[in-house]
Amino acid sequence: MPEKRISRWYFGGLASSGAACCTHPLDLLKVHLQTQQEVKMRMTGMALNVIRNDGILALYNGLSASLCRQMTYSLTRFAIYETARDRLNSGNNQPLPFYQKVLLGAFGGFAGGFVGTPADMVNVRMQNDMKLPANLRRNYKHALDGIYRVFQEEGLRKLFSGATMASSRGVLVTIGQLACYDQAKQLVLSTGFMSDNILTHFLSSFIAGGCATFLCQPLDVLKTRLMNSKGEYRGVWHCVSETARLGPLGFYKGCVPAGIRLVPQTVLTFMFLEQLRTHFGIAVLT
């Protein structure tokens, strides 16, 4: 009987971490652009400004927090989505309907967003630290130091500041990435012109990255502002109203770098994931 390989529960975290190592400079530039109160620089200008002021390695500020985030947020959402999908699909050669994929993605994304909030906050702060005056910089040594200091200095509640927004974004980005990737891959394979190979993985993940960017950009902007705030926002709706003052496009500030980051990250994540599944996955008979 033919066999197929399914992912181990932690493959999503490993694949996302590998992708994050490649796309971290784009993530850093996205955070810098989103936290501008006025549009002063574009992506290229911001990149040159960071390199000029702090050196080229500054593009990797906060990498430890980014990896910590992937091993909490992405590991959780991938583990829930893929484990539940494979369990529901066990013994059934027919793929799940799209609405079930969306529901699984929503649940996995919500849980992952909540679990990953502390690491996500520290990630945003570490990336944005270099923009602050020297006397206002937090100077976290690494992700775990940042999480410990936030807990010690600001309390547990602050550590989960923006959790609602992060979980909501997690729902949208997981639907855009995981559910849309599976659906796009299913549609590509159903044409009969392509097989389950690296080109199919690339095309499907590219489509998924575009969907995820479109769905989550407004929440991404709000989440970044809340996590980086120093008390200027009274809550989520106050942040929404302040952002709305910049006009409708204020919610899509940094959309281009977000897409430039999220699409390659999505592509790399699924390329890594498919290779991990092929070479190290659990073999099951079909």
Tell me what portion of residues adopts beta-strand conformation. Answer: under 5%
Number of domains: 1
Based on CA atoms alone, the radius of gyration comes out at 19 Å
Give me the count of strands: 2
- Which sequence of strands runs across the widest sheet? 1-2
By CATH, the architecture is named Alpha/alpha barrel
What is the averaged pLDDT score?
Answer: 85
Largest sheet: 2 strands, antiparallel
Q: Point out poorly predicted stretches.
A: none
Order of helices and strands: EHHHHHHHHHHHE
CATH fold-level label: Mitochondrial carrier fold
Q: What is the distance, rounded to the nearest whole angstrom, between the alpha carbons of the first and last residues?
A: 7 Å
Q: What is the number of helical segments per DSSP (H or I, 4+ residues)?
A: 11
User: Structural class of the secondary structure composition?
Assistant: mainly alpha
What is the name of the CATH superfamily? Mitochondrial carrier domain
User: Helix amount, in percent?
Assistant: over 70%
Morphology: globular
